[in-house]
Amino acid sequence: MYFLFVSFLALHTPFLTPYHTGKPVYESQAFHPDSTATIGFVDAKAEPARLQFEDSLVYLYNAMKLSDYDLAFDAFRYGMIGYGTLQQQGRLSDRKLLTIIDFTKPSTEKRFYTLDLAALRVTYHTYVSHGKNSGENKATTFSNVVHSNQSSMGFFATAETYVGGKGFSLKLDGLEKGYNDNARERAVVIHEAEYVSESWIKKYGRLGRSQGCPALPKGLSKEIIQTIKNNTLIFAYYNDAAYLQSSQYLNPAPLISSLSVSAHSSAE
Fold first, then answer.
1. 9 is in which domain, residue-wise?
2. Is there a contact between 50 and 24 (Cβ–Cβ < 8 Å)?
3. How many angstroms separate the CA atoms of 25 and 22, rounded?
4. Which of 12, 92, 113, 138 is most exposed, with the fewest beta carbons within 10 Å of its own?
5. What confidence tens digit (pLDDT) does each residue in 70-95 have?
6. Cα–Cα nearest to 115, from 161, 75, 159, 88
7. pLDDT single digits (tens) 150-160
């Protein structure tokens, strides 16, 4: 039952961490998660399973070399908790893709990550825009309101593609009531934009901004859309305490409990 989350992802690789010394990975290697949020557990009996779960996340983070891409561990951890919860509910594709948009980063940094959890690799790492009313170079305010021209945070499921005024685009379904469930009504989609480029950054000191859509660079957008379309998960991360504590997808306790039961059942 050691790597609960790895087992859950069915990665079919006998992960034997070279870092394991009898202590959790995050206590026995150079990497130390800086998360200050503690969600869920109060039951002492669940503590060993929780530690194994957290150990698995740290192992995956290091195995994928995500620090090389400057992906914050907190963004990855929360994204994986949501991924595990939704996958367990049967609401996602079996392609094992997770896209994270880290809105704690400025637009001048690459903050769009598509992770292939089966291959343990970063498939895409590029620029992405935010809504014009969310901030200048950095998004600081978010909305679920129609015509707000702001970005939304939380978990989205990718949906169908279409060709519209912005070219080849991808519709999104917001999964979080009050945070992004108006995505369809707001026409928040993934599309390409000329203002998402390094040349735009050099000229204006930031990316251009959208009306709330996570726009991607021209020449790369279509490939990304084709890869992540049809019910894969996008996590628009921002370190908003109220959201992180209230999201129904970010409490790891039920997920860990079920993984523990599954692991025990498999061992019998």
1. 4-267
2. no
3. 9
4. 12
5. 999 999 999 999 999 999 999 999 99
6. 75
7. 999 999 999 99
Which CATH number is 27's domain given?
2.40.440.10
Q: Cα 19–52–10 angle (5° rounding)? A: 90
Instruction: Provide the domain count of the chain.
Output: 1
- Residues in contact with 102: Cβ distance below 8 Å, sequence separation at least 6, in sequence order: 71, 72, 75, 111, 113, 237
pLDDT digits (tens, 9 = 90+) for 137-187: 999 999 999 999 999 999 999 999 999 999 999 999 999 999 999 999 999
E strands, 61-196, where? Answer: 97-102, 112-116, 121-126, 154-164, 167-174, 189-190, 192-193
C-alpha closest to that of 250 among 33, 80, 87: 80
Pair of tokens at residue 228: 């992540």
Whole-angstrom distance, CA of residue 245 vs CA of residue 37? 9
- 235 with 100: CB under 8 angstroms? yes
Contacts of 108 (CB under 8 A, 6+ apart): 137, 201, 205, 206, 207
Of the candidates 120, 5, 86, the one whose C-alpha atom is nearest the C-alpha of residue 52 is: 5
